[in-house]
Design goal:
- The complex is a heterodimer of chains A (338) and B (423).
- With 338 residues, chain A is of the alpha/beta class.
- Chain A contains 14 helices and 14 strands.
- In chain A, helix 3 crosses helix 9 and helix 3 runs antiparallel to helix 13.
- Chain B is built from 13 helices and nine strands.
- Chain B has helices spanning 16-19, 21-53, 84-117, 122-136, 140-154, 158-162, 212-242, 249-266, 289-315, 319-327, 332-362, 374-386, 389-418; strands at residues 175-177, 180-183, 185-188, 194-197, 208-211, 269-272, 275-277, 280-282, 285-288.
- In chain B, strand 1 (175-177) and strand 2 (180-183) form a beta hairpin.
- In chain B, helix 3 packs antiparallel against helix 12, helix 9 packs across helix 11 (332-362) and helix 10 runs antiparallel to helix 11 (332-362).
- Classes of the chains: A alpha/beta (338), B mainly alpha (423).
- At the A-B interface, helix 1, helix 4, helix 6 and strand 10 of A face helix 2, helix 12 and helix 13 of B.
Chain lengths: 338, 423
């Protein structure tokens, strides 16, 4: 009995590990579909709309990659993953890439054998509390019950923050954002903690968003970005430079509105290189000349994606802040296309 | 019998391995075993190779690293600086807590429902039938989530106690909230302290403290029960000699209760009542909502199966037994305890073991309500933070296997004791 169980587990692991080896680009092309791991539903970042179509800021990255590789931004199979299942899904080859509010950390990059291809949102962990609680600072939360998504870096930051400030708290571990929302609204926890962007997105979906405040303290750095498996450099480069193309497009003023105009050729050689009218960057990683053109056209440049999904005119209402272009005082910066 | 002659000795030929029925079964078994071992060997080596090519060799070193996360329900001391191994240990204790309490409660409810289902009272019998059918035909997970939802959505939050919207029960000693129930905690003013065990072993991962007070109380209690047993035996001897049984129940009760109460008084027992301070109740024992939901759901669910087992056990005893006992002049209560139950137990215990095992294994559904059992710590947060899936799952399976084997060996030992001694 003991042996059967043991070997059964090995068998599953063996099959899963066996699927990883081949080149991801070839796999995706042969399949005709990109498998993209996203969150189970976080409005603004990745959530299905009323018709079941996935939409959001992270979803935009998936669609851009699908457009670059397959020429069709809708050729994406979205695989909802929880904080717990996401890494196994990526490591086992169930998804080709993960675009799911995942914090870039040393151990995930090095020990878990993943490759973060960049940062698409600079975030930090915050707290949300009901206004009626009368709390104005995270330092007032001594003894509070706090809902937290299990299997995330926020769990570790929370432990460190309370320890460093010599305060006690009662963690209530939950699996998904929806569950956290329900527990928080029922008053089973005093505060809800996750990345500040996630808090804003969650609050936007409440019936009375005004009854809840996000505390001013940001207790951690959470650079969120898409990631791929370690070891397939070509695929990693494709996802990395697709993201960079979106960022450079904003910097250079390429938008989904004027891209067709610009693709006829401009005076700016970098725009020409990105859009494929000059040189052949795409061929260097196995794609055609128009890859970046299609990626940008799919949902617009980085700024357009931001404004459409999570920007100040959406219910989520996030300011650009750190996520503005470097020219505008933010941290968003793409290496040159050359 | 000895008139048979030996069959003529044939020389062994290779073909006989297949065509001779004496050897055929052995041949098939050997071939199957070889195929099985080759298959297993391939799976193991394939796994190892794939893991090695991913650069993830099996390594249990992560267990000695600090866990860095907090656990809400901890029966023994734990901080986020303790090791992953200790976090797993805390989870294991939580699993055992819910499993043991679950088995006890499920047995009590199960026996009660099982006996009542046989009641001649039509209404009682029907109600119990509805209980059994409703509970056992809905998946456990749903019951757990359902109970949790009831607790969080319908019970008052701690802040309602501050504003006076909700009040504590039982003279202000018990607070029922949507974060769990707070009950008074027994504390000793002249506590004898604790003994520390396993300190310094494996980065302090398995250290724990045993309360000397508890040991003393248990010793006194066990001593009382032993003396009570002596009194009973003496009464038995007197009854055998004279036919008259002396009244002993007050004496037997006294030797158990009085010394225990005396020791509790010596230690200065008093109860600390939970009190609302800040966000939550402080002091007292906190039975968390997740624990209550899991414990009650598992108990109610398993109780439905145990009820059927008990009913089957009782019905398996032929009617003649109770009629014969009645003819000897036994009252119905004694018929049940002296004649029916001892025989029914033999039928009940073997399936009961598997219900206990089921309950223990079902406790791994704890994560659905955020109860930090071993699946939640070792198989959840630790697995996720370290990325050591295979190692964590292997350990987890080994631990559940050990728990299950322990339960079944204890129950088998008990079964041996109550089973029919054949003469």
């Amino acid at each position: 009995m003991k042996k059967t169980v043991f070997f059964g587990a090995l068998a599953v692991a063996g099959v899963a590990a066996g699927a990883v080896a081949a080149g991801t680009l070839d796999d995706v092309k042969a399949r005709g579909k990109l498998n993209c791991g996203v969150s189970t539903g976080l409005v603004g970042f990745a959530a299905p709309d009323a018709n079941g179509n996935w939409d959001g800021f992270d979803v935009g990255v998936c669609r851009a990659v699908a457009a670059a590789v397959l020429g069709d931004p809708t050729a994406v199979e979205f695989v909802p993953t929880t904080g717990k299942t996401r890494f196994t899904a990526l490591a086992s080859g169930e998804v080709d890439m993960l675009a799911r509010n995942t914090t870039w950390t040393f151990s995930r990059d090095v020990d878990l054998k993943f490759e973060f291809v960049g940062i698409n949102y600079y975030d930090g962990q915050g707290f949300m509390v009901p206004k009626s609680l009368g709390v104005t600072s995270a330092k007032d939360l001594d003894g509070a019950t706090i809902c937290i998504q299990t299997g995330t870096t926020t769990e570790l930051n929370l432990a460190d923050f309370f320890r460093a400030n010599n305060m006690s708290y009662e963690p209530v571990p939950i699996e998904t954002n929806a569950e956290g929302q329900q527990q928080y609204l029922a008053g089973a926890c005093d505060a809800y903690t996750t990345d500040a962007s996630g808090l804003a997105a969650t609050r936007a979906s409440f019936e009375n968003p005004k009854d809840h405040i996000i505390l001013p303290e940001i207790i951690s750095k959470e650079p969120l970005g898409p990631l791929v498996r370690h070891g397939d450099q070509q695929w990693g480069d494709i996802v990395r430079w697709t993201l960079n193309a979106l960022i450079s497009a904003e910097e250079l003023g390429i938008t989904s509105a004027n891209i067709d105009e610009l693709a006829k050729g401009t005076q700016n050689p970098e725009i020409n290189r990105i859009l494929g009218t000059e040189g052949d960057l795409g061929a260097m990683f196995g794609l055609d000349k128009q890859w970046a053109y299609r990626a940008i056209k799919a949902g617009g440049n980085y700024g357009e994606l931001f404004e459409k999904n999570i920007g100040e005119n959406t219910p989520i209402g996030l300011a650009r802040g750190l996520n503005a272009q470097w020219k505008d005082g933010g941290l968003v910066y793409s290496p040159p296309f050359r | 019998m000895t008139t048979l002659t030996d069959p003529p000795k044939e020389s062994f030929r290779l073909g006989m391995l297949i065509y001779d029925s004496r050897y055929r079964s052995i041949t098939i078994q050997v071939a199957a075993l070889i195929a099985f071992l080759i298959g297993m060997g391939w799976i193991v080596s394939n796994t190892m190779n794939n893991l090695a090519s991913l650069g993830k060799e099996i390594d249990f070193g992560f267990l000695k690293e600090p866990a860095s996360y907090d656990i809400n329900q901890r029966l023994i001391e734990y901080t986020s600086r303790d090791t992953h191994a200790r976090a797993a240990f805390i989870g294991l204790l939580n699993t055992l807590l819910v499993a043991v309490l679950g088995c006890v409660l499920a047995t009590i409810i199960g026996v009660f429902v099982g006996v009542l289902r046989l009641s001649k009272n039509w209404l009682v019998g029907r109600v119990m039938t509805v209980y059994v059918e409703a509970l056992r035909n809905v998946p456990t997970l749903l019951w757990i989530v359902f109970l949790m939802a009831i607790i969080t959505e319908t019970l008052p939050a701690p802040r309602d106690f501050k504003s006076g919207e909700a009040e504590m029960l039982l003279g202000g000693t018990v607070a029922v909230t949507n974060r769990g129930t707070y009950i008074p905690e027994p504390v000793f003013s002249y506590s004898l302290g604790n003994i520390k065990l396993l300190e310094g072993f494996y980065n302090n991962s398995f250290r724990f403290e045993v309360s000397l007070d508890l040991i003393v109380i248990l010793c006194v209690l066990i001593g009382g029960i032993l003396i009570s047993g002596l009194i009973k035996r003496r009464a038995d001897r007197v009854q055998a000699a004279t036919g008259d049984r002396p009244k002993t129940w007050h004496l037997r009760l006294a030797v158990v209760v009085l010394p225990t109460v005396f020791v509790l008084w010596l230690l200065g027992l008093f109860f600390v009542v939970p009190e609302i301070k800040g966000f939550n109740f402080r002091d007292g024992i906190h039975l968390r909502a997740s624990f209550l939901a899991l414990w009650l759901a598992l108990s109610f669910y398993t109780a439905a199966f145990i009820a059927e087992i008990v009913r089957a056990g009782i019905m398996a005893i032929s009617k003649g037994q109770s009629e014969a006992a009645a003819a000897l002049g036994l009252r119905s209560g004694r018929i049940m305890s002296l004649v029916i139950l001892p025989q029914a137990l033999r039928v009940i215990i073997p399936p009961l073991i598997s219900q206990y095992l089921n309950l223990t294994k079902n406790s791994s559904l704890a994560i659905a309500v955020g109860y930090m059992d071993i699946t939640g710590t070792l198989g959840g947060i630790t697995l996720n933070q370290t990325g050591r899936e295979l190692e964590c799952l292997l350990l987890l399976m080994l631990i559940y296997l050990t728990i299950s084997l322990l339960i079944s060996s204890v129950m088998n030992w008990y079964n041996e004791r109550v089973k029919l001694t054949e003469r």
